[in-house]
Design a protein that fits this description.
2 domains, PRISE-like_Rossmann-fold, NAD-dependent epimerase/dehydratase, two-stranded parallel sheet, globular, NAD(P)-bd_dom_sf, about 45% helix, single chain, alpha/beta, about 350 residues, 16 helices, Rossmann fold
Length: about 350
Amino acid sequence: MEKIALVVGSTGISGNNLAKELLNQGWETYGLSRGLGKDVEGVSSVQADLLDSNSLKQALVGVRPTHVFFTTWMRKNSEKENIEVNGAMVRNLLDVLSEKKSVKHVGLVTGLKHYLGPFDAYVASGVLPETPLREDQPRLSAPNFYYAQEDELYIAAKRDGFTWSVHRPHTLIGNAVGNLMNMGTTLAVYASICKEENLPFIFPGSKAQWNGLSDVTDAGMLAKQIVWASETPSAFNTAFNVANGDVFRWSWLWRKIAEWFSIEFIGFEDEIRPLVETLKGKEDSWKRIAKKHGLVEEDLHKVSSAWHTDLDLSRPIEVMTDMTNSRILDFNEYCSTTGSFFSLFEQLKSDKIIP
């Protein structure tokens, strides 16, 4: 079967790794992004605005994908705006591609917000989700832009007759500078500042996160699951959680990360200490570090996303994911979490993102 992939958000943390996996498996691969980010070598880059149907039509004139993988989102100031904008992006793309009648499968990447909802929703309500998070748990009553994206996917699939898969990773660990949700690079940058200024590496999160069990998702693991689901008939029209396959406590992993950078650390002590506050005013420090070590990016805010790391690590519950849906269908990939972090750190050093 002809396999022509269109990766939407191909310069991001999940799209970048997915494009590599597709190329490794011999797919013809197009990458669609709004900006001028760096695509993987071998990807045919397409630039378009997902909120502009005319822009999409022009950019995709010569592209007839058999498989579409949607891996991007846009952050707005409210969940209402998130729903409007992110739903429209999925709808616009699938409407434009509908005319080509080439699409056989669409994979959509969302996340654990599907189960947790916006942070304020479960903190304010006092009703905490049951963990491990399972794929058959019902939708929450709170507004959620992931639901809007899924609904647009289901509508288009019914109209055009393609199959679909939805992928819900936990925190993604992988290499993509400037990504909105990049804990691995954010922690590497923070640890580098601590080392340069002889400061302790302070855990920014909650007691529940420090002591509880957790998991994360390597971006390469997510990529493998997405491709697998697009080619496995028994996996069609199903939603999948995806994580590395191991579990850990931050009380252990924080120490391991500190050891990798050869710095002292401080764990949870009585209260949450947000990384946003810890890094406030460190812009000039990062510029000095970048100049001293010849790094490629002097803007602290382009190499870190402290707000997202704070959201993840300040949760008042431990968060683990159950992967029953893909495990019973023989998706048996595994990735060590320390391996995910440490290989990322090595790559960031090699790319001159961190010293």
